């Protein structure tokens, strides 16, 4: 290839894990003992937290779902030691690995994140499927003349909270409340979408507001998610454009759309709130350009 060219090699294939991973990683100590409520607060903005030992060696991984399950079964007031909840061993990847290999590793292990290690095996960061999607979406980001062709992968929430169809309604209620979400994909053992359950579904079945759900009849709380969920929900395929998402939101009046791969495995979820926030940012860009005396972005 000529200097500065790469012989048609995709941009993302030239990147290494170290180029897109998150370097500022919050961790938990395996020996820490915290209330479930305190642990829930640590997962407000993250899905996964590596667990380290006294020498900062990686020992395990704790996920938001691990803590939510503990909250459902034991209550948020209970104190637990982190090592009791963490999963181990942890799947890791070298910081020098390329992104296609990282994607294959995640998919093969059915994981949404990988701990990144250096040549000596020390943790140097974390790589999520969101990091991968953002990097790969960079190849597809259109020129400013066509912002509606941006892929939904760039705006969706990756690795969303999800439940299986055999989960109880009280577990769904806890997950919605403490996860701060309104929609939960329902997946089988291989993360394939089988339905979706929403805050509205629970209000119709349990009655009242979220604060009143714990007081619903026990027999109702013990019903299974599969009995209440919406079957065959509308979805977006990975790579679909924002214009396609907007069409579904406006025509079908849904609040959120799961984003799936070709095998119906859930990669993320896009809500109308995500789209509104993006629109607000676009409007801010237009106004900034107008203030600078440039041409506003062409509406599409």
TrEMBL record:
Superkingdom as given in the UniProt entry: Bacteria
InterPro entries named among the record's database cross-references: CBS_dom, CBS_dom_sf, Diverse_CBS-Domain
PROSITE patterns to which the protein is assigned, alphabetical: CBS (PS51371)
Start and end residues of each CBS domain: 21-77, 86-143, 156-215, 229-286
Gene3D superfamilies given in the database record: CBS-domain (3.10.580.10)
Pfam family, one: CBS
Keyword line: CBS domain
Keyword 4Fe-4S: no
PANTHER family: CBS DOMAIN-CONTAINING PROTEIN (PTHR43080:SF2), CBS DOMAIN-CONTAINING PROTEIN CBSX3, MITOCHONDRIAL (PTHR43080)
Protein's name in the database: CBS domain-containing protein
Species in which this protein is naturally found: Archangium violaceum Cb vi76
Lineage: Bacteria, Pseudomonadati, Myxococcota, Myxococcia, Myxococcales
């Amino acid at each position: 290839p000529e200097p500065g060219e790469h012989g048609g090699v995709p941009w993302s294939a030239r990147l290494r894990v170290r180029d897109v991973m998150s370097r500022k990683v919050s961790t938990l100590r395996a020996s820490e003992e915290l209330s479930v409520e305190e642990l829930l607060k640590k997962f407000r903005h993250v899905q996964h937290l590596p667990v380290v030992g006294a020498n900062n060696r990686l020992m395990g991984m704790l996920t938001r779902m691990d803590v939510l399950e503990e909250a459902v079964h034991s209550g948020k007031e209970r104190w637990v030691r982190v090592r009791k909840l963490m999963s181990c061993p942890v799947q890791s990847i070298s910081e020098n690995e390329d992104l296609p290999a990282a994607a294959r590793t995640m998919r093969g292990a059915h994981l949404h994140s990988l701990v990144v290690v250096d040549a000596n095996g020390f943790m140097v960061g974390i790589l999520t499927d969101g990091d991968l999607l953002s990097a790969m979406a960079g190849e597809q980001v259109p020129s400013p003349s066509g912002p509606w062709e941006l892929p939904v992968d760039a705006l969706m929430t990756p690795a969303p909270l999800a439940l299986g169809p055999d989960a109880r309604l009280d577990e769904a209620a806890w997950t919605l409340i403490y996860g701060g979400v309104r929609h939960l994909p329902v997946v089988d053992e291989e993360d394939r979408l089988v339905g979706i359950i929403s805050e509205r579904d629970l209000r119709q079945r349990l009655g009242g507001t979220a604060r009143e759900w714990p007081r619903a009849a026990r027999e109702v709380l013990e019903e299974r998610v599969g009995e209440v969920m919406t079957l065959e929900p509308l979805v977006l395929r990975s790579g679909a454009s924002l214009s396609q998402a907007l069409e579904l939101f406006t025509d079908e009046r849904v609040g959120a759309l799961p984003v799936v791969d070709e095998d119906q495995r859930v990669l993320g979820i896009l809500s109308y709130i995500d789209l509104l926030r993006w629109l607000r940012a676009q409007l801010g860009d237009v106004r900034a350009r107008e203030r600078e005396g440039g041409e506003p972005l062409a509406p599409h």
